[in-house]
Amino acid sequence: MARKRYVLSVLLVSALFGAGACGSGDDHGDSGSTPSGPDDPSADGGASDGSSHDGANGSDGSAPHGDADSQGAHEGGIQDGGPSDGSASDASGDAGASGYVISGPSGTITSEDGDSVTFALALTSTPQAKVTLDLSVSLPLEASIDKPQLVFDATNWSKPQTVTVTGLDDAILDGDQPYQVLFAPATSTDARYQGTKPAALSLVNYDNDEGPLSLSTGDDTSLVLFADGRVKAWGTRAAYTDPRFGVGDQPNEMGKSLAYVGFGVGHTVTNIVASGNSGHVCAFVDDGSVHCWGNNDKGQLGFGDKVQRVAGPTGPLDLGTGRTIKSLAIGGAHSCAILDNDSVKCWGQNILGELGLGDSVSRGDDPNEMGDNLPTVDLGTGRTAKAIFAADTRSCAILDDDSLKCWGENGVGELGIGAGLTRGDDPNEMGDNLPAVDLGGTPVTLTMGLSHTCALLVGGATKCWGFNNHGQLGLGDTRNRGLAPTDMGANLPAVNLGTNRHAVAISTSWAFTCAVLDDAHLKCWGAYAPSGFGLGNTNDRGGAVGDMGDGLPNLDLGPGRSVLSVSAGGSHACAVLDNHRVKCWGYNAEGELGLGDAVARGGAPGQMGAALPVVSLR
């Protein structure tokens, strides 16, 4: 929801005469209070105790709204008589009317990040006996109160007693929660105060568990897209959102201090894609445009120059008259897109045919190379693409007939075509002349590392091919696959992820691979990258007998935690957990883990599980 903060500089006076005047419950007069509270674990959308929130809060849990004058009259006015100026009665205590003065409150918003609200309470007249007020919050999982009881007598009745209400974090995505600071009827032998109480204070506890819609990790950079369409980035130059190096490697750089990437007033982001190693990022904006920023030394941003851009509205990509972009993939220093007509265009670096244009000429780094002047990739007679992928110096597409074609670098079998020849850098290597990759099954999606590729197939099997010096193919050896004609198809084994287990999502870094399993656990294998990939040591996994299957442990991301998604960067990885929190591990020289330091995590005992902090994002 849109969030607006309100600061109330009002004097709230509630002068109540006896139990009969104020009633016995909280069903009216409760809209003037200001607590701060904990966050309950249920998606209840409001108070669970049946107390009302009318007047101060809307039914959607938003902060109080309406013009300032009417709000002040409602919340800060005098109820049932009492001093008209809102002050306590004179020090002599001769005034006989009983009542309460609430000064403040300091605001109406608490948060799961620990933001608090304060108010002060005093009596309006000298009590003839001790007056005891018990305080509570209507949603004790949303907020806590530092003084659950206030006691007034003849010596302190006019001295305001300060109460602090602090928002609590339940680690549950349940939205902003309206709640109240409640006052129980006073107990006193003074009949004027017995059974009376101030009006409740109505507050809202902001939820900080709004889960990321998606994660994207690059070489030394991490980005998160929230469900509200806003983006945050951290790590090396924070994907060029900040001129400093290593945003996230110092205290107080994350959380509220980490600015959102702006895309113009009223615009939100629907998808983000990060580069594997050259430091450029592209974002899909809600108006259908695509904006790219970061490194541009090879023209990978597609602006006809080599000028680096900072994050934000950089100008939509021009891929041809009337053409729009359906999906996009980013390699090391090149980019590929599927257009609205299902054709493919690639631009940027082209040293090994990664653009698939039958030459080694880069595109997008000089004027007049984009738009209608940029050729489409020939995928074969009548063939179009339905999914696009890219890595360092190669590209792949799943075609409309569910076949898979890859082009670019192929020194260690990374194209998976049973031969070691680079494809796409010479004439007559694309189109019908480019063989499809035989996986012995139908690919659903791919993930591409520096020199290896993994595919998730229909039926749940995972198959990997290419470079395997660290066991990144997960086959229990270090032999490369994809160079020899007998390496692929039915001869390419599926990765063993454990008894009756299969992957539902996969992501590769430079030299390791991570898979979210069907039981929502996470397994990673390959190079230790170079600070470990979360198993508490710096040993490679996947290159020896016994490394995989049931012998490969699940990554420990905390007691009872499971994984929704994972994204592997150059030498680090990040995961969205079931509580919608993000945890990152691995290399951290540039703050890519977002933990306020440059300390690597995951390569030594005691660094994972509950010991691995969550990334502060809000």
Structure, explained:
The protein is mostly beta strands. It folds into three domains: 11-206, CalX-beta domain (Immunoglobulin-like, Sandwich); 262-425, Methylamine Dehydrogenase, Chain H; 438-618, Methylamine Dehydrogenase, Chain H. Helix content is 2%, strand content 28%. The chain has two helices and 32 strands. It has helices at 18-22, 68-76, and strands at 11-14, 78-79, 100-103, 109-111, 116-123, 131-137, 143-145, 149-152, 161-167, 177-183, 201-206, 212-217, 221-226, 231-235, 269-274, 280-285, 290-294, 325-330, 334-339, 344-348, 385-390, 394-399, 404-408, 443-448, 452-457, 462-466, 503-508, 512-517, 522-526, 563-568, 572-577, 582-586. The strands form nine sheets. A six-stranded mixed β-sheet has the order 2-1-3-5-9-7, with no helix packed on it. The protein has a five-stranded mixed β-sheet with strand order 4-11-10-6-8, with no helix packed on it. The protein is elongated. The two termini are 14 Å apart. The relative contact order is 0.09. The model is unreliable at 1-95 (pLDDT under 50).
